[in-house]
Amino acid sequence: MDSYRTEEEQVEAIKKFFKEYGTKVLLAVVVAAGAFFGIKSYQHNERSDREAASTYYNRMVEIVPAQGAVSDEDQPVFDAAYAALLKDFSDTTYASYAAFFKARMDVTDGNLDEAEKTLRWVVEQQVNDELVGLANLRLAKVLAANEKAEDALALVKQPQGGFASSYAETEGDILVQLGKNEEALTAYEKAEALRDGRESMTSRLLTMKIDSLKEGQQDKLHAFGASSEEAEADKNAE
């Protein structure tokens, strides 16, 4: 504006600028404001979804007693909360953990087909790599328990989600089930080598499996126990 000699010329220049570009400037302001408030709205909705999903998940967990059986009175509440999570919040971690919870109850009840269906649902959602890896690991155990050992073995050949040690250990469990003890020992030793070094009850169980196979006492193996990595994943859901 310093190039203009008078204040009147400056005013005229401003008027001319807004006459030529005012609509474009206004449009740019509107678009920028819309984007800002759109982001704020998305963040608010995302937070609301997480809170609602958390409420449904906690409702499921709270009505299940220590023995793991839902009472007839609470069953409709449990089913409604679970259905809401799967229908409206399938892309949240709460829905996946609710499915893990449901699958575990199905296994306890001996309903392995339903547990398989539930775990496959988690895999299909692809919420994140860790949940997919954990779902496939547990699916392999369910398949093996349901006399589908070869299908289970195919799953654990491809470790996912940071559960390499658990996949190798589960592979060993399945190989024991198939009577392939030498291969099972190799898988167990691989699992031990992949451990992070932390001592736990499950890590000691793996050592017992290795020792039992070396001593030819595979009948003492406690197959399909939760690995330390699985236990850690379950802890994160709490």
From TrEMBL:
Q: How would you describe this protein's topology in the membrane?
A: Single-pass type II membrane protein
Q: Which domain of life is it from?
A: Bacteria
Any Pfam family? TPR_21
Please give the residue ranges the record annotates as the region Disordered.
219-238
UniProt xrefs under InterPro entries: SecYEG/CpoB_TPR, TPR-like_helical_dom_sf, YfgM
Q: What is this protein called?
A: Ancillary SecYEG translocon subunit
- Specify whether Transmembrane helix is a keyword of the entry: yes
Q: Which family does it belong to?
A: Belongs to the YfgM family.
Recorded source organism is: BD1-7 clade bacterium
Q: What is the lineage of its organism?
A: Bacteria, Pseudomonadati, Pseudomonadota, Gammaproteobacteria, Cellvibrionales
Transmembrane stretches, start-end: 21-39
List each copy of the Ancillary SecYEG translocon subunit/Cell division coordinator CpoB TPR domain by range: 15-214
Q: Spell out the molecular function terms from Gene Ontology.
A: protein-containing complex binding
Q: Which UniProt keywords are listed?
A: Cell membrane, Chaperone, Membrane, Transmembrane, Transmembrane helix
GO CC, alphabetical: plasma membrane
